[in-house]
Amino acid sequence: MNFGSYVRWLRQRLYQFNSNYTVQQTAERVGISTTYLCRIERSNVLPPSEDVIRRLAAELGEEPDVLLALAGRLASDVNQAIIQRPILFAELIRTWSDLSDEELTELLDQFRNGQWPTALEDTQ
Q1: Which CATH superfamily hosts domain 3-74?
Q2: What proportion of the chain, given as a percentage, has pLDDT over 90?
């Protein structure tokens, strides 16, 4: 699913339970024109700016990073971190890309808790 069709799917899913999620009403709340939202949903334009994507995510109840990824973008803070350490982040992503979601979540939880990840202890 591409960015536009996912945005449309999210909006239409919300519309099933709340009639305030028409294209016009959603566009109004996001601060863009109805025509522009229609074009986004039909993938007739390139994905919008990070700011618009973040507003769409907030309006549609989606994680901004999910919409940014579908748009082929990184959040500006993530991009800045990569720019500061491109080799390390590239190696980190390549090394951990084969881990399952559960393994990655466990590692992240350990980092957040200030613990040395057990999966990394085996490599030392």
Answers
A1: lambda repressor-like DNA-binding domains (1.10.260.40)
A2: 80
Local structure of 16: helix, strand or coil? coil
Nearest residue to 10 (alpha-carbon basis) of 64, 46, 48, 50: 64
Q: How far apart are CA 70 and CA 26, in angstroms?
A: 20
Q: In sequence order, what DSSP letters do the residues of 48-83 get, joined into one string?
A: --HHHHHHHHHHHT--HHHHHHHTT---HHHHHHHH
Rounded to an integer, what distance in angstroms lies between the CA atom of residue 104 and that of residue 120? Answer: 12
Portions of the chain given CATH number 1.10.260.40 = 3-74
Q: Is the model's pLDDT at 124 over the cut of 50?
A: no
Mean per-residue pLDDT, 72-83: 94
pLDDT (average), residues 85-112: 91
Task: Say how far apart CA 75 and CA 69 lie, in whole Å.
Answer: 9
pTM above 0.85, yes or no: no
DSSP symbol at 110:
H
